[in-house]
């Protein structure tokens, strides 16, 4: 495994800072986001159930991590999280997820390289202009002059947020947590 595909020991866990309490039940605004598969996706207009895992940024092989990345609670782990959703993709679909997306503020060309390198069976969405982040007040943080999204997972049903996972830690267990939630919801 490369340095980006595994998590180092001793990463600080993020704490719930209350920055996501307003999200459950929120109807999403119409915002069109470019996807790595060439589509433009409006999360508010999707039918059925969508899972959107939001992550700060994916590391690029050969490039250094942002300053103090491993010390920022919840920052490290975007690639392991993406691989987790890749590995759980079919199970998530079987549990009722009609759509699965990753979302960050990275530009689409960077995300496209990541999606291809990691063989993701779902598209990544770019909120590079922070339109969705600002419209629904997603939790954010700053490092090295970049304004990045905190790790959060949204379950969206017919264009409204029905469940939120926040904070997400460890990130490589995120897909399994979502799967357990979907399977539990289906059995009720």
Describe the overall structure.
The protein has a single domain (32-187), classed as 3-Layer(aba) Sandwich (Glutaredoxin), CATH 3.40.30.10. The chain has helices spanning 78-94, 108-117, 131-135, 174-187; strands at residues 32-34, 40-42, 49-54, 99-104, 124-126, 140-143, 146-149, 152-157, 160-165. The protein is α/β, with parallel strands linked by helices and 188 residues long. Helix 1 (78-94) packs parallel to helix 4 (174-187). It has a five-stranded mixed beta sheet with strand order 5-4-3-8-9. A two-stranded antiparallel sheet has the order 1-2. It contains four helices and nine strands, in the order E-E-E-H-E-H-E-H-E-E-E-E-H.
Descriptors:
188 residues, 4 helices, Glutaredoxin, alpha/beta, globular
**CA-CA gap between termini:** 39 Å
Domain unit count: 1
Q: What is the CATH superfamily classification? A: Glutaredoxin
Q: In CATH's first tier, which class applies? A: Alpha Beta
Largest sheet: 5 strands, mixed
Unreliable spans are none
Helix-strand sequence: EEEHEHEHEEEEH
Beta-strand percentage range? 15-25%
Proportion of helical residues: 10-25%
Going by helix content, strand content and strand pairing, the class is alpha/beta
Overall pLDDT confidence: 94
Radius of gyration: 15 Å
Identify the strand order in the major beta sheet: 5-4-3-8-9
């Amino acid at each position: 495994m490369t340095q980006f595909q595994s998590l180092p020991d001793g990463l600080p866990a993020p704490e719930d800072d209350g920055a996501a309490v307003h999200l459950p039940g929120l109807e999403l605004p119409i915002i069109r986001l470019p996807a790595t598969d060439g589509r433009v996706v409006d999360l508010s207009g999707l039918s059925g159930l969508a899972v959107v895992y939001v992550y700060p940024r994916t590391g690029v092989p050969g490039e250094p991590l942002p300053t103090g990345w491993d010390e920022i609670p919840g920052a490290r782990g975007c690639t392991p999280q993406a691989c987790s959703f890749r590995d759980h993709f079919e199970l998530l679909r079987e549990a009722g997820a009609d759509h699965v997306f990753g979302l960050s503020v990275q530009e689409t060309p960077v995300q496209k390289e990541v999606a291809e390198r990691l063989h993701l069976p779902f598209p990544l969405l770019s909120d590079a202009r922070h339109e969705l982040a600002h419209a629904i007040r997603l939790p954010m943080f700053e490092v090295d002059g970049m304004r990045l999204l905190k790790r959060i997972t949204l379950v969206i049903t017919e264009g409204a947020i029905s469940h939120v996972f926040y904070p997400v830690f460890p990130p490589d267990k995120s897909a399994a947590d979502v799967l357990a939630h979907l399977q539990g919801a289906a059995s009720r």
